Amino acid sequence: MALATATVTAILPLRPSFTSNSNSKCSTSRIKISAQISTNGSPLLAQTFSGKPEADVIVIGSGIGGLCCGALLARYDQDVLVLESHDLPGGAAHSFTIKDYKFDSGPSLFSGFQSRGPQANPLAQVLDALGESPPCATYDSWKVIIPEGEFLSRIGPTEFFKDLQTYGGPNAVQEWKKLLDAILPLSAAAMALPPLAIRGDLGVLLTAGARYAPSLFKSFLQMGPQGALGATKLVRPFVEILDSLELKDPFVRNWVDLLSFLLAGVRSDGVLSAEMIYMFAEWYKPGSCLEYPIGGSGAIIDALERGLKKFNGRLSLRSHVESIVVEDGRAIGVKLRDGQFVRARKAVVSNASMWDTLNLLPKEVLPQAYQERIKATPQCESFMHLHLGFDAEGISDDVGIHHIVVNEWERGVDADQNVVLISIPSILSPDLAPPGKHLLHAYTPGTEPFKLWEGLDRKSDEYKQLKAERSEVMWKAVERALGPNFDRGKCEVKLVGTPLTHQRFLRRNRGTYGPAIKAGKASFPGHSTPISQLLCCGDSTFPGIGVPAVAASGAIVANSLVSVSQHSQLLDAVGL
Fold first, then answer.
1. Which intervals hold domain Amine oxidase (predicted)?
2. How many other C-beta atoms lie within 10 A of the C-beta of residue 474?
3. Is 148 exposed, middle or buried (0-12, 13-18, 19+ CB in 10 A)?
4. How many CB atoms lie within 10 A of CB 372?
5. Contact 207/564 with Cβ under 8 angstroms?
6. HSE, side-chain direction, 13 A CA sphere, residue 260
7. Using an 8 Å Cβ cutoff, are 13 and 556 in contact?
8. ω into residue 543 within 30 of 0, thus cis?
9. What is the pLDDT of residues 146-184, one digit of tens each?
10. Rounded to whole angstroms, how far apart are CA atoms 321 and 333?
11. Model confidence pLDDT, tens digit, residues 188-201
C-alpha cells in the first residue's frame, strides 16, 4: 500500500475500460485503435498503427513502472512503443469517470513530489527528468480509528507524542523517541544513492558507485563506528531493529506493523529496514508534509504520458499482448490478440506481474527451474473496493482526506476484513466531483482471500450475495469515518469491486497485490530474465511493491538499455 514517498495504495480499476478518452490532453500522442466488445466484456481488437509496427523497445503495460521506463527511454532518444490492453493508460494508477465523478482507481498517500536532488523519491526524479511537475495540495494529517479510540495522526518529529501518551503504555513516548534516534541517522545512508543512478550492468560502478561513493562515505563518517555498523541492518527485516532496541510497548509495535503493512504489504518482520527508514525520514522529520496531486492520481499518469510524447515515444491503447515472441533465445517482439506482430529491435520490457509475464512466454524456451521459482513465489492476497459518489451536505468540513480503520489488533493488520482504508480526495481536489458533492474510495488492503471468489460466475446470485457480505465491513468503516449524517442509501454512485474485478480489469494473476516476499528470507528478483533482450519492471522486481519502488524499477531498466555515457548525461542534466 506504500505509505512512503510518492506512494500509491491498492489502486484497482472497478469498471471495464473500453470507452474512448477524447477528453484527455494527451490523446493526440496515442495510436488510433478501433475495437469491439466481446460478449464477456473483453476487447476484440482491430489495430491500426499510425507508423511502422516496430520499435527499438516495446514496453508491455502502461502502469507507473512501464510509463517511467518508456518515457525515460524516449528521453534517451530511443524509439519506444508502450502497449496497453485497456483504453486508458496508468494500469493500477489510472482514473475513471462515472456521472461526473472522477475516481482514482485507488486512494493514495503521497509525499516527496516537490523534493529534488539525490534524496527525492524515484517518481519525482523521473518526472524531473521529463520536465514534468504535477501540482499538488499539501496536508499533514490522517484520521485513525483503532480499538483504543480515534485520533488525527499528524506527521512531523513530535506530533505523534500526544497520541502515544493517550493510547500507548507508560513507556510508549520514550520507546518512540528511542526508535527515531536510532533510525533517522541511518536515513542519510538509506537515501544517499538515488535510484535514478542505478542500472543493471557493471556500468553501475560509474553511474552510482563512483558518483555517490563520497556522499555515502560522508554519511558513514557522520554516523560514527556504531552507526556505520548499524547501517548493515538496512538490508535486514525492520523487526530486527525493533528487537535490538528492546521496544516492548504493544501500541508502538502495532503502529509500526500497520505502517509496514501499508508500505509493503507485509508486517515489520518482512519489510526491508531501508524502506521503513526512508519512510520515517519523510514523515517524521521537521517540515514534513503529505501531498495529493490536483486532479487525482490520473494527473500523475497524464504527466508521464506527456513526458513520453514530448520525446516522441508512442502509446498504443487497446493493444492486448497475447504473447512475447522468442526466436533463437531472444525476445524479438510481441503478438497482439488480433494476430499482428510488432517487432522490437533492441528489447521487450514487461511491466506485467511475474506470473502474467510467464504466461506470455512459450514454456519450451524457459528453464524449468525459472518457471518453478515463479510459480512457487508467494502472493499477497487481493482486495475489496467501494467507490462512492454522494452529496456533501451534512458532512463535516474537517472530515479529512484519509482515514484508516483497524478493527482488532489481536488478529494482525494483515488479517482479512480487519483493516479498511478510506480516501476522500475531493476534500483537497474538489474538481474530482460535481459541485457540492464528494467521492470516496474504501478498500481492504491486499487482505481479501482470492480462494473465496475463485470459480464464481460474476452474474450469479452467489457472487452478488458474497459481494454484499464482504463489502459490509467497508460500509461500516465509511459510516464511522463520515458520521451519522452519511446515508448509504442516498449515494449517487455505488461500485463494489472484488478480487475477480482486480483479476479481470488489471489482468493480475489471482487478483494479487504482488509478491509476498519477506525481507531476510528472499529478495525481489532483478530485471533480467533467461531470455535475451527480455527485461521486466514493476512490482514483481527489485525494489518491490509501491509507487516509489515501481518507478525505480522502470528507471533502472531504462538506464540498463542505454550507454553509461547517456545515463551519466541524464544524471548531470537533472542535477543528480
1. 64-559
2. 24
3. middle
4. 10
5. yes
6. 26
7. no
8. yes
9. 999 999 988 877 778 888 999 998 999 999 999 988 887
10. 10
11. 766 677 888 999 99
d(Cα 33, Cα 55) in Å, to the nearest integer?
A: 18
Q: Structure pTM?
A: 0.88
Nearest to 103 by CA among 112, 93, 113, 111: 93
- The helix/strand/coil state of 348 is strand
pLDDT score recorded for residue 3: 36
Q: What single-letter DSSP state applies at residue 231?
A: G
Distance of CA 413 to the CA centre of its chain: 19
Contact 428, 417 (CB under 8 A): no
Residue 560 phi/psi, 5-degree rounding, is: -70, -20
Between CA 178 and CA 168 the distance in angstroms is 15
With left for phi above 0 and alpha for psi between -120 and 50, is residue 288 left, alpha or beta? beta
Query: Residue 330: CB partners within 8 Å, gap ≥ 6?
Result: 531, 532, 533
Whole-angstrom CA distances from 244 to 97, 183, 237, 429, 483 are 49, 12, 12, 43, 42
Q: How far apart are CA 3 and CA 6, in angstroms?
A: 8
Q: Can you say whether residue 547 is alpha, beta or left, with left for phi > 0 and alpha for psi between -120 and 50 degrees?
A: alpha
> What mean pLDDT value characterizes the chain?
85
For 30, the 3-state DSSP assignment is strand
Tell me the three state secondary structure of residue 356.
Answer: helix
Beta carbons of 141 and 162 less than 8 angstroms apart: no
Taking only Cα atoms into account, the Rg of the chain, rounded to an integer number of angstroms, comes to 23
Do the beta carbons of residue 296 and residue 104 sit within 8 Å?
yes
Instruction: For residue 474, give the C-alpha cell.
Output: 467497508
Q: Could you tell me the three cell numbers for 479?
A: 459510516
Cell of 316: 498504443
Cβ contact 79:352 at 8 Å: no
Got the DSSP string for 76-145?
TT--EEEE-SSSSS-GGG-EEEETTEEEESS---B--TT--STTS-HHHHHHHHHT----EEEE-EEEEE
Sign of CA dihedral 408, 412, 414, 415: negative
| CA-to-CA dists, residue 497 to 12, 105, 127, 187, 216, angstroms | 9, 11, 31, 38, 45
- Which DSSP helix (H) or strand (E) runs through 500? helix 499-505
Q: Residue 254 to residues 142, 148, 178, 411, 417: CA-CA distances in angstroms?
A: 17, 12, 16, 11, 17
Evaluate whether 256 touches 183 at the Cβ level (below 8 Å): no
Which segments of 499-576 are extended strands (E)? 534-536
Task: Tell me how far apart the alpha carbons of residues 14 and 370 are, in angstroms, rounded to a whole number.
Answer: 33
- Per DSSP, what are the bridge partners of residue 80? 57
CA distances from 78 to 81, 334, 343, 510 (A): 10, 18, 14, 34
**What pLDDT, on the 0 to 100 scale, is given for residue 265?**
78
Identity at 328, one-letter amino acid code: D
